[in-house]
Fold this protein.
Amino acid sequence: MKPKILITRAVFPDVVDRLSVHFDVESNPADIIFSEAELIEKLQGKDGLFANPADRISAALIQSCPNLKAVCNMAVGYNNVDVAAATAAGIMVTNTPDVLNETTADFGWALLMATARRVTESEHFLRAGKWEKWTYNGFLGADIHGATLGVIGMGRIGQAIARRSLGFDMKVVYHNRTRLSPELEAHANHAQYMSREDVLRNADHVMLVLPYSAAVHHFIAAAELAMMKPTATLINIARGGIVDDAALIAALKQGQIAAAGLDVFENEPAFNADFLQLTNVVLTPHIASASEPTRRAMADCAANNLIAALSGKTPPNLLNSDVLKK
């Protein structure tokens, strides 16, 4: 008898077909969002979970699903999974690192450039039929070339963003939990390590790429925004909750910083509607990894992890290696 798995959200049909060779699959082509109670009910008797980053895999859910052996998240982030509870229950947890680094870095630059050069604001102006003449001061934005880029979170994606800055003749400053090696700093356009506060004070454009955890909840709040230059931009492609969205809205309204570009939000998709009243913010719906090749690579990576986990092998992207001792 094949192991049973649940795929919580719609995914590429060929990935479902591949998993069906190995497992008895319950999929969700209608892309219904399950409540925790519904998810618990559907997981009864299931051995594996192909999870979406929007799924909340809590300790209560884990305790209610005694057959569960593997949770394979189709994302590089895994703050939606209680990894400690999973480890205690002997459940393997995996993510999909590396396959989205370059695509996400590309999008970080797209968001930075749209924000600094006021692309969304000027497009809305044009579409509204307000463009009647060229003016010397129409939609003046900030230069990217020759500016200082601040990267907070210098992991693989942060380093990919820093490498791209070389073509813009930028200076790179960064903050990370641990300083990079001299070799990695050199490869990341000779990035200079600083405290969070010094990055915020010195950068013309600040890019957030750090993983979310309780320790970095509201890592950028009113006090940190007050440190930034009034001409600076803030770009968040990391996770919602790292920025205090209410404080950011206040800073944007008051002109404390020039603009922000946001792909992630607190409580998404139910984000703070006050953002919609601002013209100096570019908003996208969590799409930094959304190129077709990359999303396919993420789905394949999650599938590979699940196949390995339920075949008696160590998944290639196991997050909680301590579970193997169990």
User: Anything to note?
Assistant: Residues 292-309 form the longest helix (18 residues). The radius of gyration is 21 Å. The domain at 101-283 is CATH 3.40.50.720 (Rossmann fold). The chain has twelve helices and twelve strands.
